[in-house]
């Protein structure tokens, strides 16, 4: 079933039991892109999310259809923002994959001295990255420090990241970095 | 007889110019950003003016109060949805500009492309209508599609500090009066603009001359 | 935040200083507005009149970098007038403790006792340090609850801040005296009594200084003295700037700490026992909970979560596998880039991950970072958009042919394209769901980590014997990817922790219900003890809860069944300080917790022990003091030895400042322990340098976020704030012949940026020590690459900022430095 903007609205209604009245007027201005939208819509799915910008933690509802986000607005049930948003939150729609042509969608590689990127597959890039990590780690690994104490570390690799990740990813990332023996582990908290 | 339908109450004493309303309007109504990207003209205010894709705009104005404190006032500019809309009266064809019976929203239809933009613009007391590339005219539509489905307009939904309220007209007038009363000690000059004539009720704390109500040329932040 | 966003509505007076909440935490203003409508006063203290100031009852300007002087004046006002919350101060803080006789602050040298000019450090750990309390023969701290003893903390504070009179403070800060008085009277007067609460909302405007941590200490002291801790509408509230910077800090993606704020191991503590002994505090106070006494349980459970079955009692739970840092050596952000830039022999830093970060723009002295990146062998950048960091090799001033750094740019999923939790500033961990697949080849970060780690591990496995210390790589517990739809759940459970053997009603493999269950013998695991209770056997994923409270019953808005909050779903920490000795709330209209005779009702209390006194007025030995994480059980008005730069705050000038000496009249201009870098790119303008006479600060704005990576590619936001600007007063603009909207250059000794001048009434010249001092401000969200790449454009505010740091946090001083402004030729 194609979900039209009108039907989508029905699912958005905050209060239940509202009859969709016959609209006695033409809504031309708000249908600027409606035809294209309808063509792409299969079935709107509603999920909730938390805003990726500041630390307030506002809730949003995301309506997607056919693998594309069709609307994002403040979550009216969320106790902090109660459906509201700031300008950044109101613009979340433009961050969704498919809604922003500037999103990175491919692995890119810049060779030493090169003046452009070349595209790579994950299958090409991952082994190269692993080799670089191992080579630098092995070349710089210290089992003991200047004082003779056991340190089992590398100071040859550093990391910044990241408050932009989920908790689970943050925890896994610290595990990954500390398993490698890294000490230079930092993120946005300090800058 | 009292006027029915809906109204906005814009409480400028609560607005802190996050401009969520400007973006929420664009998202819901699928309006493109300005292209090319505008420049900074020595002010936070941007885009520089209302346009066929910019249906509401927050105007910024700095002014000093009599007691020496500074006011940085933010006022929404958009269609006022006049009770007795002069633009409609100026239109040659009655179908070009319609009034939504339930809300009172003033709606520009496709037929506006056959109207004289000069005449429609001249009729508007607030310099609001703007013309698209093919001649059709555009402005705030009160998100009537949302309102007919018991949702608030996108701007009112998004506003973090409830500086944009929306509802039955009498409720908004009552809310305006209550708010005027509450802020009177801090804002003795507080007033609601054009309360009998428009559905976009703008409540100002400072006197009107300390605000800017229309787009202005560059570098006009200061009074 | 000790409290949380909704709680702001309970405040009677709100001080926004060191932050610009309306612009950078806009939805906080929903609650600020609610408090204001209910009658609360809003105070905005900022060098510049901001969108926050536009809604304030009182706006007070101050010169950047003078917050301690401003707050020192408030401390003097409180102490001179005795406007303290008396019971709270006497019973719940160390104000009555007697300080070591050797402790002093020298008003001639400007130094606290114990300074070593060679190491530029204070002695705060040795057996002879004076930064400690007097004790009796049993080691119990001596105190005088009348607060009259001249060696008690209260009297020491009173003497110290007696120097911060209105004339002195005004001459330093540039704040008019009547405004100082008005702020002090309003903030203190509206919040020191029972039933009244004041809150502070601060952010990087306080942290990004060489005295950043002491700025916050000053306010924490004020809050303790006014009884504003633990109560609804009070607290010390850091407004965190990124959606999960709280969570990423809790999980300790930082060199100095492990998840749950456990210390990261140092070479000085080579064994687990050494480490535990060092970091487990002891106390002689019989009614101190001293919760950190559980250190070993949390550390061993962490090690079990790291290394699984390979961590055994026999191998000290693989403590030796954790990398150790050298004791006392900072490996913080700016130190990392210093090492990367220097590439000193034997300390080469050749590989780098920029994972969801854009340091080419976000670092202080960003040009140094860009030069440092050019010295790497390789860099892996993971992001959802192109960044100035990934593109640095063709940025301003770079010749790609000369840059040998190999760069991998990996596309990752945005927040709505994966599932997991993030933790907001109020410590709420909230679950979010996947709406759509990531675009193109993009993948969730966790999957990228998994692929890289698997490839690394395979290389070490293949090498076999002879591989360089492969043990932690081969043995780290890594079993979260079996069910591709439950990856985040699997890790969230690991973070919560498991019973590893049968225990009471639980079987091996069950999730632990909370951190009280954790053991120190390897029979439990927990990736982060603070997050125990977030994902349990009984209730599943508590972070996904979505039940709002009824406002009629949950008057103060705790919303305990919405998501989950650390620790133990406690929404307001230190809440035992909100009740009197009998467990009755100081504010009966806004109770946080209440003792009903049998137990606590309301928020999850800081421990379930009964009130300090029984109904008959007799001390209850089974009770515990309210500050359960403090060894002495009370709030630290006097910081003792926890701070690198003094037990109490003193005003020092920023590294770069318009003054040649400290206007407090002593010999120490700069924080004597400030972290300095001295590479050839770490240029510093001398004090009162005529070439750079204007104070400058960086800041953010509502329309963009951080370096702008996630907003400059968003057309709807870009049109609101399209390009770099510098804000300046009408007076400075007139002196310089600059009109609003004209193009100018802002220069510091380290670099320059192009900007549009915004000439505004919102900046006013300051009168500092009798002289006119101008201040300007620049954002740091713009850059050369987005939205239209142009490497002739230098527009990032961090090209101006210095690489000097607070000695406690190593956060750089981006909020106060010196510049000049010139009209574009």
Characterize the structure shown.
- The complex is a heterotrimer of chains A (191), B (223) and C (825).
- With 191 residues, chain A is of the alpha+beta class.
- Chain A is built from five helices and eight strands.
- In chain A, strands 1-2-3 form a three-stranded antiparallel beta sheet, with no helix packed on it. In chain A, strands 6-7-8 form a three-stranded mixed beta sheet. Chain A has a two-stranded antiparallel ribbon with strand order 4-5.
- The model of chain A is unreliable at 1-42 (pLDDT under 50).
- With 223 residues, chain B is of the alpha+beta class.
- Chain B folds into two domains: 6-81 and 143-210, Alpha-Beta Plaits (2-Layer Sandwich), CATH 3.30.70; 86-138, Alpha-Beta Plaits (2-Layer Sandwich), CATH 3.30.70.20.
- Helix content of chain B is 21%, strand content 21%.
- Chain B contains six helices and ten strands; from the N terminus they run E-H-E-E-H-E-E-H-E-E-H-H-E-H-E-E.
- In chain B, the strands form four sheets. A four-stranded mixed beta sheet of chain B has the order 8-1-10-9. Chain B has a two-stranded antiparallel sheet with strand order 2-3. A two-stranded antiparallel sheet of chain B has the order 4-5.
- Chain C is of the alpha/beta class and 825 residues long.
- Helix content of chain C is 22%, strand content 15%.
- Chain C is built from 20 helices and 31 strands.
- A six-stranded mixed beta sheet of chain C has the order 25-27-26-31-24-30. Chain C has a five-stranded parallel beta sheet with strand order 3-2-1-8-9.
- The longest helix of chain C has 19 residues, at 445-463.
- Chain C is globular and about 80 Å long.
- The model of chain C has no long low-confidence stretch (mean pLDDT 97).
- Chains in contact: A-B, A-C, B-C.
- The interface between A and C is large, with 121 and 166 residues.
